[in-house]
Amino acid sequence: MLKRWAIIVIISLAPALAMTQDNSPKPAEGQTQAHPNRPGGGRFQGVAGTITAIEGNQLSLKTTEGKAVTVTVSADTQFRKDRQPAALADFKVGDTVTVAGAPAGENAWNARFVTMRSIGQQFGEGLGKRFIAGEIKAIDGASLAILRVDGQTQTILVDENTSFRKQDQSITLADFKPGDHVFGRGEVKNGTFVAAVLNWGDFKPMEMPRPQGSPDRR
After folding, report:
1. Where in the chain is the domain with CATH 2.40.50.320?
2. Which CATH class for the 43-117 domain?
3. For the CA atoms of 78, 79, 82, 85, what is the dihedral angle to 10 degrees?
4. Higher pLDDT residue, 118 or 72?
C-alpha cells in the first residue's frame, strides 16, 4: 500500500519537476552567452568581429573566425565605446566590436548591445610589458622586431623557456617569418620583453591575457 502511494506521488509531481529544468537554448560553438544579471535582464548570445561595412541600420562584420555576418541594430540597441555611451555614428569600418543579442538566421544577428574598446583601453600599460601583439618585421637569432598593434615597434626576445604555438599546435621559432602576426604573454627582463608564450596568428581581443592578480571570471 505504501509503495502504491509513493508511485502516485511521484507521478503527480512529474509535471512540476519537468518545469524546473532549464530548457533555454544554449549558445552555439564560438558564440557567447551574456549573464542574466547583466544590463538588459535577459540572456543574450553574442559575436565579435571587425566592421567591414555600415549601411543604414546594418553592420557587416568579419568575425574572429573569419566568417562574414550581418548585424542589425534598432532603436533599442545600446552602444558603448571605451565604456562610455555612444551612437551608431561613432563606429566606423575597421573597428573591432562585440555584439550581444539574438541570432536572426544564418550568420545574422539582431543586436541588443554593441560595444568597442580602443587599443589603448584594451591594453592599458600592459602592452610590451606583460604581453605583445603585432607583426614581425625582422628576426635576428632570438631577437624579433615587432610592429605592435598600437603602431610602435619593439624588439623582444625569446629564450629556451619560450613556448611557440600555432592554432593549439606546438611549433618552433623557425616556423616564424617576417610578416607573420603574433601575440603572447611574457615579462620584461633586464629592460627587454622576453616572451613566455608566442602565438602565431592575428591577435583576438578575447585572447588578451588578464593582468596578474585579476580574478578568473569564467
Report:
1. 125-207
2. mainly beta
3. -70
4. 72
Largest CA distance in the chain: 86
Secondary element (H or E) of residue 5: helix 2-19
Please compute, for residue 79, the number of CA atoms within 13 A of its CA located in the half-sphere on the CB side.
15
Distance, in Å, from the CA atom of 156 to the CA atom of 17, rounded to the nearest integer, reads 59
Pairing type for strands 68-72 and 96-103 reads: unpaired
Count Cβ atoms within 10 A of the Cβ of residue 103 and give its class: 0-12 exposed, 13-18 middle, 19 or more buried. middle
**DSSP count for the chain of H helices, then E strands:** 2, 16
Residue-wise pLDDT for 178-209, tens only, equals 999 999 999 999 999 999 999 998 776 544 44
How far is Cα 63 from Cα 84, in angstroms, rounded to an integer?
23
How far is it, in rounded angstroms, from Cα 218 to Cα 205? 16
Q: In angstroms, what CA-CA distances link 59 with 16, 73, 79, 171, 216?
A: 43, 8, 13, 37, 32
Q: What top-level class would CATH report for the domain 125-207?
A: mainly beta
Dihedral sign for Cα atoms in the order 87, 67, 168, 198: negative
Q: How far apart are CA 123 and CA 121, in angstroms?
A: 6
Judging by beta carbons within 10 Å of its beta carbon (0-12, 13-18, 19+), is residue 86 exposed, middle or buried?
middle
- Identify the CA nearest to 160 among candidates 145, 147, 141: 141
One DSSP character per residue, 87-150 reads -GGG--TT-EEEEEEEE-STTEEEEEEEEE--HHHHHTT-BTTTEEEEEEEEEETTEEEEEETT
Please tell me which residue, 5 or 133, carries the higher pLDDT value.
133
